Amino acid sequence: MKSILFFLLVFSIVSCSNNNEKEDGAGGWQNLAKNAKTLGKERWQPMLSYVATLHKESTHPPVWPFELEWEEIGPGYVYGPAFGHWDIIHQVIDVMPYYPEHALKQLKNNVKNQEPWGLLPGSFWMPGAEWSSNDSATWSTSMQGHPPVWAFAVNDYVKRTGEDTVFRYFYTPLIRQIAWFENSRNAEGEGFYYNDILTKRWESGVDDGVRFDETDYGKWACIDATSHAYYLYKTAAVWADKLGMYDPLLEERRDELEKFIQTKLYAEDDGLFYDIWAIQDTSLRTLAFETIWPVVVGAATEKQANILIDEYLLDTNCFLTEHPIATVGKKDPKFELRMWRGPAWNSMTYWAARGCLNYGREDAARIILEKALDASAKQFKRTGTIWEFYHPLGGKPEQLMRKPNTDKNTPCHDYLGHNPLIAMARMYEMLTQ
Predict the structure, then answer these.
(1) Tell me: the pLDDT tens digits for 333-346?
(2) Mind listing the pLDDT tens digit for each residue in 152-204?
(3) Residue 29 structural domain
(4) Does residue 52 lie within any of the structural domains?
């Protein structure tokens, strides 16, 4: 069942509400700063206080194309001020418990410029950025979306505030994005793909990912894109019911994708999830961190999740490196100290821990979070900044490669977009109480 006709019906009866977020201003930033000083281990707290300050300093007054204050992904980003991609969602999740009003504004900014056919733009290059034009914001309106993890953050907002009326605001963007996946990222046979495999534009958010090194070009099911689309359907089914618009087609498609992930994108012999081409050709299999997404979105079975957690996430020769998680397993021949091909990104560590919690594995989440926060705090004490990504073996971030053969070959500093460190510390504290 791949028909999208029902989207048009749902579409026609849903409208966005007006902005209703409460204004909190300085009080919200003070609340964030106050709580950051108290989370987790004492040696983490200077770093967390710095992150709280960086959130405030990275927030700017409304400017086209945003009607609300907007937060850039970090003043140390080498390409200049930018908004969007999945970076902003990690920032939203980071401030959510202590400044939900600001978090909601960023979520609304995120969907504000969705195209009518459902594309959510990936990155907004704001005035002063390297790729902005004529001192005006620039973004792609056709070629490149981004991982739709924003739906997690909306659910988190409702859980935090109880304001489930926001479901009505975000339901139309959610359905539109599902329609975009079905119309523009529908894989051959079943599942969904990101344009990484066709254009190398890294829509998945993973620049130069190892999964695509030896593949041919084709519209083939990617484990991350399929998992993300599954979560959109899973979320839409819940929101529709909350809004009094229950639609069994949403649940039917959710269940189809869940079965496909569990049976066609899972290798019993390895105990791992893969893209469809790596299922079919074992020589193309890699220990890429994207294997965790079915666990994060809740599409894996209990057995599948526990095998992945015990045999891979907690394996010190795979993902549980000195600074977890390695974005490519340490024992994989493709592991290297280069952007997205081995280094640790705290955002991915966060998702891994969150996935563990989906399956009651508090033990694994604690281990992963503690190691990552310890390692991040060590580098903060040494350098006084937070880094775009970290040395998985405990070395210096400056020793890592970012974009070889360019003048941007060192991880960015003062980078919020992949450092939900306050959220990670709060999660750890809740698990150790």
Answers:
(1) 999 999 999 999 99
(2) 999 999 999 999 999 999 999 999 999 999 999 999 999 999 999 998 889 99
(3) 1-149
(4) yes
Q: How far is CA 353 from CA 300, 311, 349, in A?
A: 15, 15, 6
Q: What angle do CA 412, 415, 420 make, to 5 degrees?
A: 140
Inside any domain, residue 183: no
| Residues with Cβ within 8 Å of residue 299, at least 6 apart in sequence | 227, 230, 231, 257, 258, 261, 262
Say how far apart CA 34 and CA 310 lie, in whole Å.
36
Q: To which residue do tokens 């999964």 refer? A: 211
Alpha helices by DSSP H, 66-134:
87-95, 100-112
- Under a CB-based contact definition with an 8 Å cutoff, are residues 327 and 344 in contact? yes
Angle value at C-alpha 225, between 220 and 226, nearest 5 degrees: 80
Place of tokens 């980003």: 77
Residue 16 has pLDDT above 70, yes or no: no
Q: Say how many C-beta atoms besides its own lie within 10 A of residue 377's C-beta.
A: 22
**Is 160 inside any structural domain?**
no
CB 195 within 8 A of CB 203: yes
CA distances to 36, 277, 293, 322 from 204, in Å:
31, 17, 12, 26
What is the Cα–Cα distance from 139 to 158, expressed in whole angstroms?
29
For the chain, how many structural domains are there in total?
A: 1
32 domain residue, yes or no: yes
In Å, what is the CA distance from 108 to each residue of 17, 87, 150, 225, 250? 11, 15, 10, 23, 24
